[in-house]
Amino acid sequence: MDEPECASRQEVYRLFKEKVYGAAKACMKEMVPKLKMRIASRALELKEVLEDASLTVDDKKTKASALEEEIRAMQIHHHTSSRDKIHLKYGCATTEKLNKMWIGTGKDKVTRDPILALRKRGEGETGLEFNPKRIAGIARDYHESLQSDGLPVFADAEEEDALTNGVLDTIGTSLTPSQHDDMARGVSREEVQAAIMAVLSEKASGVMASRSRFGKMPQPARRTLAPGRPGMTCRPSW
Hints:
Number of helices: 8
Largest sheet: 2 strands, antiparallel
Strand content: 5-15%
Strand order of the largest sheet: 1-2
Structural class: mainly alpha
Helix content: 55-70%
Oligomer: single chain
Order of helices and strands: HHHEEHHHHHEE
Shape: elongated
Number of strands: 4
């Protein structure tokens, strides 16, 4: 850009901004109609896929989901382009102050909902649902169906009582011969002592754990203190 004669730096900067704004506006005017035509074209393709009788249900779902995602992305792009066009028309040419758009330029865009879309669950419906309220309704209905699936449904109370009694009749109320033999078998002293020591070693802590560990150690033989005094015995100190 040629600098005009006897022009200040502010004047040069103003002329530069006007040319940039003019080029951006021309680009927006050319881009927005093309984007609208692409969205309409994809919507027509989606309608043809849903009405195509030669495709299977799975193929329809796959193609419809891909087209809906592409349409959604183009709609978001179109909305952003429209906002940029308004900003160019009313904001950039008249003011230089910071606004929310410029402040948020370096920040990551957080989605409003963690779940962007859910598969439609209505009869005869295919593709994905992007509306937040409808997504919440689909999730609520799915949760309620999980609570009720698998639960028995009885015609009346008599049918429920009959099935309950049938289940109770199949439960045994007496011991089998092998269980009788196990109950009649005695338990030795060594088995009882081993079981008690195992419980103490697993559950005890601190001093009790030390006592249980020492209790399992083999006891040393008694020895006399003096040969002339056989009645006096003691254990060695640890």
